[in-house]
Amino acid sequence: MEYSDTEQIVEQSLEFPATHTAVVEQIGAIEITSPSGDSVTIREILDPVEEESYLNSDSLYAAIVGNLDETFIGRKYYDDRGGTTFGTVTDDESTVSF
Fold it and tell me: How distant, in Å, are the alpha carbons of 53, 67, 74, 84 from that of 15?
């Protein structure tokens, strides 16, 4: 499953409040695929989480998203706003930012 489908699966597959154990039993085997092609199960994502229950789909979704590893992040340190590159110093005064 693509990462973008996670919220919909959480909302449709469970009734809330839901215990951590129930979540893992019902949707733990679902794999989420990162942009790089690696896959991880919801069970693997939630293993380190110490929550006993989730009050609503938003709190479960936040737990899943908050525990994804860096392979789910786009290009690290990418900034589409232009300007200087992170960590560089320029003395060029021709570019002014307001």
Answer: 12, 22, 32, 48
